[in-house]
């Protein structure tokens, strides 16, 4: 039995990613990670008792992308799995990778609905996880942000699962080579204009200092998610509208999550500066906190109150007198 197959089996079981009786749409671009995802899930489907279907999304950004989707269709035919595809019409320009990611997810959700799949499997690896952690670290993320990609995530329309999240890219390629499988390489994965490519190059350099760096960053993400879950549960226990005394008595991490949730329930996204100002209001019980959108938080009867901000003083045009 392949070592990488055993890794995927254990990880999927630990997080209930591929339960018996489920229908899983495997997203495949024709690249090595997604081809490995399809091949591995095809093996596990027989063993674990889930139904596998295959989907591919053509972003329409490269002339050869249509042929790559045809290659995925041929793989699905060989494996005797249902296949569907979608073609997008993205335009090159600013934020291309983010726009492509969002459009691809929407297309995959539509394919899942069409094929009757209750979950979508993505081919993110431990290397992808390490790149995500590094990207968020460089943006000043807190513990919750360093949790990066979770093994599963519920969207409005489906459940996203990542069975390969503890697998290394090199191990997946070795598995494909041993199986006689081919794949295509997207040239954009070598284009330094994209942040993820630059981060990949940085990680490759840092692995010269510690060969287990990717593993360490993946473990950091898992630990961060575990800690965030514990803190979130403690914050939920404070109630949906905790009073100032309760907030003040809570541990700092719990208090901050409770404040974020309090704001989120009122459609307010708190940046770090606003969160710190709100926490200072709780601790000192003095002043008010101005928020974007001409709103402010004050204290009323020992609880936080969100209302309109103060009217701004406007200068008037001088008269002709």
Question: Can you count the beta strands?
Answer: 9
The amount of helix comes to 40-55%
Percentage of β-strand residues:
5-15%
Structural class: alpha/beta
Q: Please count the helical segments.
A: 12
Give the helices and strands as they follow along the chain.
HEHEHEHEHHEEHHHHHHEEE
Describe this structure in words.
By secondary structure, the chain is an alpha/beta fold. It is built from twelve helices and nine strands. The strands form two sheets. Strands 3-2-1-4-6-5 form a six-stranded mixed beta sheet, sandwiched between helices. Strands 7-8-9 form a three-stranded antiparallel beta sheet, with helices on one face. Strand 2, helix 3 and strand 3 (83-87) form a beta-alpha-beta unit. Helix 2 (32-48) packs across helix 7, helix 5 packs across helix 8 (195-206) and helix 11 (252-264) packs across helix 12. The longest helix is centred in the last third of the chain and has 24 residues, at 213-236. The protein is elongated and about 70 Å long. The model is unreliable at 313-321 (pLDDT under 50).
Features:
321 residues; alpha/beta; three-stranded antiparallel sheet; 9 strands; 13% strand; elongated; disordered C terminus
Write the layout of secondary structure elements.
Blueprint: H1 3-15, E1 23-27, H2 32-48, E2 51-58, H3 65-79, E3 83-87, H4 96-115, E4 119-121, H5 126-138, H6 143-146, E5 152-154, E6 159-161, H7 169-178, H8 195-206, H9 213-236, H10 244-249, H11 252-264, H12 272-284, E7 289-291, E8 295-300, E9 303-308
Helix pairs in contact: 2-7, 5-8, 5-9, 9-11, 11-12
């Amino acid at each position: 039995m392949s070592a990488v197959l055993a890794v995927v089996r254990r990880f999927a079981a630990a997080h209930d990613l591929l339960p018996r009786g489920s229908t899983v749409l495997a997203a495949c671009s024709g690249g090595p990670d997604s081809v490995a995802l399809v091949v591995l899930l095809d093996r596990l489907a027989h063993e674990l008792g889930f139904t596998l279907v295959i989907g591919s999304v053509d972003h329409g950004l490269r002339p050869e992308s249509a042929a790559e989707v045809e290659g995925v269709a041929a793989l699905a035919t060989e494996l005797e799995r249902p296949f569907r595809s979608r073609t997008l019409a993205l335009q090159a320009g600013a934020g291309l990778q983010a726009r492509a990611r969002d459009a691809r997810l929407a297309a995959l959700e539509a394919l899942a609905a069409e094929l009757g799949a209750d979950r979508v499997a993505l081919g993110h690896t431990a290397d992808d996880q390490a790149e995500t952690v590094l990207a968020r670290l460089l943006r000043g993320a807190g513990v919750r942000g360093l949790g990066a990609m979770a093994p599963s995530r519920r969207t409005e329309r489906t459940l996203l699962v990542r069975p390969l999240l503890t697998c290394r890219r090199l191990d997946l390629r070795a598995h494909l080579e041993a199986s006689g499988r081919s794949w295509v390489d997207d040239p954009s994965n070598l284009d330094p204009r994209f942040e993820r490519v630059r981060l990949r190059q940085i990680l490759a350099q840092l692995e010269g200092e510690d060969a287990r760096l990717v593993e360490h960053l993946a473990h950091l993400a898992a630990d961060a998610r575990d800690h965030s879950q514990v803190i979130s549960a403690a914050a939920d226990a404070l109630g949906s509208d905790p009073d100032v005394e309760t907030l003040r008595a809570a541990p700092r991490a719990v208090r901050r999550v409770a404040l974020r949730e309090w704001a989120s329930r009122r459609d307010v996204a708190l940046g770090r500066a606003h969160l710190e100002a709100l926490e200072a209001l709780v601790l000192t019980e003095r002043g008010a906190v101005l928020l974007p959108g001409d709103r402010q938080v004050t204290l009323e009867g020992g609880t936080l109150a969100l209302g309109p901000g103060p009217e701004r003083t406007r200068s008037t045009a001088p008269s002709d007198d």
